[in-house]
Specification:
This protein has a single domain, classed as Alpha-Beta Barrel (TIM Barrel), CATH 3.20.20.70. Helix content is 36%, strand content 15%. It contains ten helices and eleven strands. The protein has an eight-stranded parallel barrel with strand order 1-2-3-4-5-8-9-10, surrounded by eight helices. α3 packs parallel to α4, α3 runs parallel beside α10 and α6 packs across α7. The longest helix has 19 residues. The N and C termini lie far apart (77 Å).
């Protein structure tokens, strides 16, 4: 009798909806598509230095309650309307959470917050959320962690991110080379910037890589390369914060040394704030000072912000406080508003 050698540690399998069927059920309208395409062009222009506005990627650490996210989005849009000449807000809509060991993996993987892993339901929710955000007229940013999930909703994303844990991953660099929007690569978890610069260089080239077609068929895709990839400084475990003038200038020079655009985004959270949400204001103030002193490499910032400040432990959905993060602690939207105004004032003065 032949001994079994295949799938010996797979206990269960479920069918997965195809991207084509999901897009058929939740289609992107013409007006929304035009707005997303326009937002991508605006982001590219800001990152290239052709648009004097500053990019602000702002919103919750992760999405666990679509209703609260849309509430936040409406209020953010209202706050940013009088600042539209100086900043371009892009809503953080992050559906996947990389875990150091284990933990909640995000709305797509576990939409019911109970380890039931109804991934088909999570994909429906994710696409519906992005459609609702697009209907508001807000561009959306999202991190691409699973290399196939993007086929289900990437058409709705205006800015993509590759995180610190995956910046060295060859398959994520290949993925970024084929994505249709600008992509930011974060420096590594220890703080090293060179791995992100290598990732940018790699993603600018054409690659062949395995993925899924929209019909759900395994295929080998060829990318044309993505010329709109940029560096995101987020601090690191070994290096500490890297938003200070010396670190920003060093990063700009490292980019230029590889004949890459000397433009970058600074994440005010994560290693730059030591995961203390209140310190994001200190980071942003430093960046504003640097911009006013002539540092043109800083083209945008990231802020983690939600309706309610702080975070809360994972619990049953009905037991959770409305509008408060269940992952990284965030600034409240009320505390975020003056930071947006400060950034806009800086952009206006530096024209």
């Amino acid at each position: 009798m032949t001994e079994r050698t295949d799938d010996i540690r797979i206990s269960r399998a479920q069918p997965l909806i195809t991207p084509w069927i999901l897009q058929e059920e939740l289609p992107l309208g013409d007006a929304q598509a035009a707005a997303i395409a326009a937002a991508r062009r605006d982001i590219e222009a800001i990152l290239a230095g052709d648009d004097p506005r500053l990019l602000v990627i702002v919103g919750p650490c992760s999405v666990h309650d679509p209703e609260a996210l849309l509430d936040y989005a409406r209020q953010l849009q209202s706050l940013c309307e009088p600042l539209a000449d100086a900043i371009l807000p892009v809503l953080r809509v992050y559906f996947e959470k990389p875990r150091t060991v284990v933990g909640w993996k995000g709305l797509i993987n576990d939409p019911d917050l109970d380890d039931s892993f109804h991934i088909n339901r999570g994909l429906h929710l994710a696409r519906k959320v992005l459609l609702d955000v697009a209907a508001l007229g807000l561009p959306a940013a999202s991190e691409f962690l699973d290399t196939t999930f993007g086929q289900y909703y990437a058409d709705l994303v205006s800015f993509g991110a590759i995180g610190a844990r995956t910046v060295e991953s060859q398959v994520h660099r290949e993925l970024a080379s084929g994505l249709s929007m600008p992509v930011g690569f974060k420096n590594g978890t220890t703080g090293q910037v060179d791995v992100a610069i290598d990732a940018i260089r790699s993603a600018r080239h054409s690659h062949w890589f395995p993925s899924l077609t929209k019909e759900g068929t395994p295929a080998i895709l060829r990318s044309s390369g993505n010329p709109h990839c940029h560096l995101i400084l987020r601090g690191g475990r070994d290096t500490g914060p890297n938003y200070h003038p010396q670190a920003v200038q060093a990063a700009a020079e490292a980019l230029a040394a590889h004949r890459l655009p000397a433009s970058l985004i600074v994440d005010c959270s994560h290693g730059n704030s030591d995961k203390d949400p209140a310190r994001q204001a200190q980071v942003l103030s430093s960046l504003c000072d640097q911009i006013e002193q002539g540092q043109r490499a800083i083209r945008g910032v990231m802020l983690e912000s939600h309706l309610v400040s702080g975070n809360q432990p994972m619990a049953a959905r009905e037991a959770l406080a409305y509008g408060q993060s269940i992952t990284d602690a965030c600034l409240s939207l009320a505390d975020t508003a003056p930071l947006l105004e400060q950034l806009a004032a800086t952009a206006r003065r530096c024209r």
